Amino acid sequence: MRRILFLLIFGLAGLGVLISLGVWQVQRMAWKHDVLAAIESRITADPVALPSQVSEGADKYLPVRVSGEMLPGEVHVLVSVKQVGAGYRVIQPFRTGDRVILVDRGFVPTTAKQAMRITGPMDITGNLHWPDEIDSYTPDPDIDDNIWFARDVPSLAAALRTDPVLLIARSQTDPAVTPLPVGTVGIPNDHLQYAITWFGLAFVWAAMTGYFLWRGRARSESDAL
What residue ranges are annotated as transmembrane (predicted)? Predict the structure, then answer.
């Protein structure tokens, strides 16, 4: 009886832990849905003028409309687009008033890397962003071939001699450049899969606990005989 009682307590304790982890992931999933909805609402809000003071904490995803002049000089960030393939994000300096900022104009295929692009006066609508694309595996940029592997705002600003402010264009700035506007698609929300995993483990744990209890009881009855 002590052995069966131990198995029962151990099994129920483990089952409780696994179920609580699954419930926690369901709660996290609901929280993440709310976060993504808030981000999407901010991204698609009416654009405003570029703030005089910009900060990542206050202005990430802020929709902005700027008027000014697209300046010469480009940085090419390697990217892959679904159903299209590899290409580059074209990032250029843009003068608006007495400031020069970075503008991510969008995507061009690898064959258009060296093509001439429209510069000069234009109006641009987009979103301020500070992409988090660098980890320990990100290669350093190939300066000679002008190929970058991440949009690191301070490094891009230093390379193009601009303020460390990146506007990702939502409007088209050149017929040959396809805008890649900010969205929530790339923000992971894997909590449903995690919840299914924990609840699945809880089911297996419950089944194994039931099996060992049945086996222990059968052994006890056999020993009694």
Answer: 195-214
